[in-house]
């Protein structure tokens, strides 16, 4: 523990600025996801704070950041509608957290390891593209929605592309100027030459962008009123000046809903979807981690369970480990879980002390920050690298990107996973054995040497090969090299041995455990 404490102290110079950047990214996301979910705006902030102050220390990951997830907005919206009251939905969040805790203890976290790398990289690239596409209207000052809408089709009847077309016809000059200036600063701030100087290493570009954006908008309001940015294009959070006002904002779960059967369906849905999103996110963050640390996924599920129970009790939305915030953390130089904790501290402080200032920040400046995060997730070099790996890796990668772009995160991942599994099955179909044929005048001898690991995925390939063996041949099936042969495969081999005489095939089975073939008639 002493070594870890030393690590935390040694990396404060990187973790505090990274936490500040993540806070600046998380703030509009917390508000936007709450808005898109049909929940009180403050509930999004509560979840972000709990994700930073509680889950960061319980998590198995050093770099992932937890908070309200865009992928859960539809589930939250439907859950509130199904239960008829937000207080009832909060109880579902608490129960979902308890279920996640159970999943962690039964070691269900291993599920995340079965997702192909091509699908995870496709998810990262798609999120990068979505961030870019979704922020363009905010960048231009033409969209009054918040940052929570990750789906292709939006509640206002538009889609991702029509929203951009609409934005270009409704540009707000002040927002555009601030957006361009912010983006230029962020690009320059990332320059390797400037990084040589201590100031540019310690001070995050996003902080400079936010401060400058506020100053510019104040200048526009006083001297160039035609460029002044409307309140609808500024951050908007509730201003809390006392504990009484805080108590008035907080909403608590209603335990009378325990008798409502719909509660348990909503809770189960939240737990499963949130767990899946978390496992995918931490797997993706592990790939982004420059130190290549591995996350204990079971510990992560337990941490998320506790986080959701606490968030639900305080009036917050359900949470997951979130790739947008996590990737911003990595890109900003975060090294340990302290950066996620710092982001939670800043969110908490913003509620009590910075609300009036934050409500002066133009959304176009925050859009510029997210445009940079999006670009880093979907760099052209990523596509080139996947293409070089061959079509078995490139096709699931591209399909995942397109599916997420035109549906939503979870549906897109499922489609990408289906394509990835197809290529895995195809690869397994080809390599469960070594086949050698010796031709002779009397009877051909065919050697089939089974590979080291023969799973049920290989069953179809082996059965097809056995069915196509020529009549009047001598077949030797050898399992000497096999450490494991699945029962289904053993049964198929025994069934072939039992019926091979009908084709005048002589069968020798070596080093393979015989199993009885069940008669289904």
UniProtKB/TrEMBL annotation:
InterPro entries annotated for this entry? SLC26A/SulP_dom, SLC26A/SulP_fam, STAS_dom_sf
TM segments? 16-35, 42-63, 83-106, 113-133, 164-187, 199-220, 263-285, 306-328, 340-373, 394-425
Q: Which GO BP terms, alphabetically?
A: transmembrane transport
> Coiled-coil ranges per the record?
none
Ranges where the SLC26A/SulP transporter domain occurs: 13-390
This protein's UniProt keywords: Membrane, Transmembrane, Transmembrane helix
Q: Which domain of life is it from?
A: Bacteria
Q: Which Pfam families match?
A: Sulfate_transp
The protein's topology relative to the membrane is:
Multi-pass membrane protein
Q: Where in the cell is it found?
A: Membrane
| Cellular component terms per the entry's GO annotation | membrane
- What is the protein name for this chain? Sulfate permease, MFS superfamily
* Organism name: Pontibacter ummariensis
At the highest ranks, the source species' classification is: Bacteria, Pseudomonadati, Bacteroidota, Cytophagia, Cytophagales
